[in-house]
Amino acid sequence: MEQMNEIVESVLESAAEHKLFGPYDTIVVAVSGGPDSVALLRILHEISLTRTPLNLICAHVNHGFRAESREEAEFVRSLAGELGIPFELAEYDIPALAKNSGLGPEGTAREKRYQFLIETAKRYGARSVALAHHADDQAETVLMRLLRGSGPSGLAGMRWKRTEKNVELIRPFLRINKTALVTLCQTGGFFYVEDATNLQTIYKRNAVRLEVLPMLEQHNPKVKQSLLQLAEIAGAEDDFMEASAAKCFDELVSVGQSKYTFNRAAFAAVPSALQRRLIKLILNYLSADSSSLDFSKIEAVRRGTLQNDPTVWSLDLGGGLVCVRQYDTVLFSSKPQQRKLSYTYRMSLPNSRLKLKEIGKVMTMTVLEKESFVVQGEDIGKMSAWFDGDELILPLTIRSRLPGDTIRVMGLNGSKKVKDIYIDDKIPSSERSAIPLVCDGLGNIVWIPGVRRSMHAAVGRHTASVLLLSLEEMENGEEA
């Protein structure tokens, strides 16, 4: 039959171009009983018999919407039997399930349908599930997404192939229009069922098909073809941009446990189109549900990153996702910001090793004789500090920061707030509570490891012995 041969050739061409299936693949075919899915099953069966051997399974879902649903299920069962193809059936009471799902009847039906198809594929060890979406469906999808303000990814429409839970969903009919499929069934004497709800405009897709597209065709008779071309172009360019974003991610983003960071200057050097893609990619990695990540949120992050002021801010993106700018670093996280740590320890000779379990660090105290010590300046910014052993008043207190803390810094008259020092040094607020403060026996802050030491007990010409304080990472395997 000429009509059958034309569609077979078109499907084989698309399958080769998009790597949809190969010899001896096991494919679950979703068959509702309508002309599109009946044509899909018969076309794949014909290909399997005459061109490329395939193992087909016919799968049908009875959603329980209509009185005819059970009859339609039996029709599909008999069709599978006629072709000698295994048949799988799922029956749901979607109206009842929809009351508690929060997805509405259409969304609930779709969720249960895909769940069943994927489970069936895994049970049979199938590589893919074949869906009967065709060119008209694609045009409607692109138009619906255009109307709701979708970006380039949405305008690519339905993809020829995508993976869900390690099963490929393939659409061999995306270049074949509805008329060709109905004609195939009619000329070939292939029975099918009609769903009366397809004519009800209460469903958004039906309204687009029955009202919006016909109106647009009055202005451009080839509007469907234009929408299909848009999907092809947008799809190819979207794939290119996704690959570019992935490369940009590898080059710019540092990955931690449930967090991603990048440098503001490196981000600013990237074109704006890639900036948006990079932000979206990071947020997708952090959350399985990216439905709430609209343009406005992504743009808020992008503009906030590029602006000069303020240099510190936090943005709640919803769904447990947070973006924080800390001067020149932008951090994305899916878990709450770390609570402020609170701890206090005492340290005195001969106690020379103290574990700070809250921050995973160890403070050590060592006595050095003057003869073996070489003065090395103020030691600012280092993880060790030297003090005059006779001048430093013991015991020392190692504690977390408190509001109003001040330190008398070398070379500065008077005291300076610890908070202001952190701000001047651009130390992110999320890291500040993990920096311990070392106080002498009178309560004076004498050292902020890695940041500053005070003017107290400075090592000088008359120093006889030196106390060396060091802050180190806790060793691997060492108990806190």
Tell me about this structure.
This protein is α+β, with helices and mostly antiparallel strands. The protein folds into three domains: 2-231, Rossmann fold, CATH 3.40.50; 253-333, Uridine Diphospho-n-acetylenolpyruvylglucosamine Reductase, domain 3 (2-Layer Sandwich); 344-473, 3-Layer(bba) Sandwich (Phenylalanyl-tRNA Synthetase, Chain B, domain 3), CATH 3.50.40. It is built from 15 helices and 22 strands. It has helices at residues 2-18, 35-50, 69-83, 94-101, 104-124, 135-147, 152-155, 178-188, 204-219, 223-252, 264-268, 272-286, 295-306, 418-424, 429-432; strands at 26-30, 55-62, 87-91, 128-130, 161-164, 167-170, 254-256, 259-263, 312-318, 321-326, 329-333, 344-347, 353-356, 361-369, 384-388, 396-399, 406-407, 416-417, 437-439, 445-448, 452-453, 465-473. Strands 3-2-1-4-6-5 form a six-stranded mixed beta sheet, with helices on both faces. A five-stranded antiparallel beta sheet has the order 7-8-11-10-9. Strands 12-16-19-20-21 form a five-stranded antiparallel beta sheet, with no helix packed on it. A hairpin with an 8-residue loop joins β17 (406-407) and β18 (416-417). It is elongated and about 110 Å long. Residues 376-380 have low confidence and may be disordered.
